[in-house]
Amino acid sequence: MRGSMEGVLPMGERIVVVFDSDCGFCQACVDWLASRARREGVEIDCVAYEDLSARDRYPEIDWGHGDSGMQIRLADLRVRKDIRAVAACLGLLRNWRWLGGLLDFWMFRSINQLGYRVVAMNRRRISGWMGLRQCKIRPRG
């Protein structure tokens, strides 16, 4: 299975990861991604959903979706949400491309999306279990 991000990041382009910075779990996930991306020379911009100034810079992002899931804007301006965003992020990382491909594989995508929704709806609890800051914003749905 090929990585889901191969060939989508032209030289010098950055991808944008939009996440809920109020959520300790979300912040920990983005920190994990950013540290690994940096080591591999992948340039990403991590943008908080709560950053109102980013809405003008990235009009292709669905800003109404931010409290219920992460998004990633690829260099070609395509946007991926939820499990497809996670798969795209993992696809950026050499040692994690296999998992990104598996998460985005059409045969497993629906069940993976369901798992993503369960985690997203319970991220407050997960943050608490991990000893992280719990979200003030309650996710929709």
Descriptive overview:
By secondary structure, this protein is α+β, with helices and mostly antiparallel strands. The protein starts with 14 loop residues before the first strand and ends in a 12-residue tail after the last helix. The protein has one domain. Helix 3 runs antiparallel to helix 4 (97-104). A hairpin with a 5-residue loop joins strand 3 and strand 4 (79-81). The chain has helices spanning 24-40, 54-57, 82-91, 97-104, 109-121, 123-129; strands at 15-19, 44-48, 71-73, 79-81. A four-stranded mixed beta sheet has the order 2-1-3-4, with helices on one face.
Order of helix and strand elements from N to C terminus: EHEHEEHHHH
What is the strand content?
A: 5-15%
Largest sheet: 4 strands, mixed
The first-to-last residue Cα distance is: 33 Å
Strands, total number: 4
Bulk shape: globular
* Total number of helices: 6
What is the alpha-carbon Rg in Å?
Answer: 14 Å
Task: Look at the helices and sheets and give the structural class.
Answer: alpha+beta
For the largest sheet, list the strands in their spatial order.
2-1-3-4
How do the helices and strands line up, and which of them pair or pack?
Layout: E1 15-19, H1 24-40, E2 44-48, H2 54-57, E3 71-73, E4 79-81, H3 82-91, H4 97-104, H5 109-121, H6 123-129
Parallel strand pairs: 1-2
Antiparallel strand pairs: 1-3, 3-4
